Structures
1.
Amino acid sequence: MTAPRSVVAARRCWPDLPAPQPGQLDGTWESGFLRPLVHVAPAGLAVVGLPRWFGKRFDAGQGANLVRSRGEGPLGERLPMLVTGDDSWCGGGPVAAISYAADAPRPWRWVRDELRSLDDDHLLGLTLVGRAGVVARATAAPFVLTRR
């Protein structure tokens, strides 16, 4: 499936996508933002502790967010993550659910990312804040991850 290019397209295809298979997530994934978030998401992430967000790295159910260093340096890891299988807060059905530690900096302790597969090398993600319910669904911010 072709990766959606807009928030509307992402929300439309989300319910029909499968959860990633075990082991499919392992590796490095580069992020991509969808219209219109492409213009505001990088600045927003910088404010909440992920300046120059590159994507995510996964290894056996754990991982971290990756940020670009200033200049040509290596990618840095921030905000360790735990990945588990769960039902989506946005319409049910299985997802790979990413959670952050209870003592993670604000707002990350309240953030949940959900992932579904577009194909073997592309994932559609939703970032949700709070708990399952109408508010989490209404404010879900989609993004795309591409295997690197």
2.
Amino acid sequence: MKKLNLKIKDMPYAAEEALNRLRVNIKFCGKNTKKIVITSSVPNEGKSTVSVRLWKLLSEAGFPTVLVDVDLRKSELQKKYQVEGIKEGLNHFLSGLAEYEDVVYETNIPNGHIVPVTTLLENPSALLEDPRLGELLDRLAEDYRYVIIDTPPLDNISDGALIASMSDGAVLVVRCGETSKALVRQSLQQLDRVGCPVLGTVLNRAEIRSGAYKKYYGRYGKKYGDYYGAYYGGNTTEKKAGIKE
């Protein structure tokens, strides 16, 4: 199996702990929850960072986990994590130009594999509607404990909802103070319409202002700045510097 190296920088302690709680919450979703979509309402809410970090933590915890990059319009994985050596990816598989073994890569993360994107497309809807995508996700779910799926936002294209319909559940990333309640409500309704259970919502870039939580993390706040806020259906926070699309 071909191998890729991802250069993933360390995160501040508080951020790592926040994502660890997200990882634990995912574990309690049950053994039948394997294909998990990470999505958002609009771009630049942090869904790709959450996808990669959750994939990494699950893998390092001993769970065979594969990250599937399905954002064929605006994938930033290669550039952001300095991934080199990708020859065939999801777009090749969906086009029938590559097989399963050609597009699943081992990585430098223990137990972590990835299905990357190689070429961005202006209109990938026809490819995403091909039965090969569902077949790929089903086979990955047989081979791995978790399949983390980084999708396009749900805003004005059907790609994200289509992919969510093939999954066992979704985590919606919401940028605090930027994404309107109406947009969040619309995204939740979209997921409901396609029959995708919402496992939780990561509230991103939420400043902790008071209470025991602030007291506990106060010593980190001086060094790293504001924190991220809550996990609907569990508990998590995220560090401001660590969440960028």
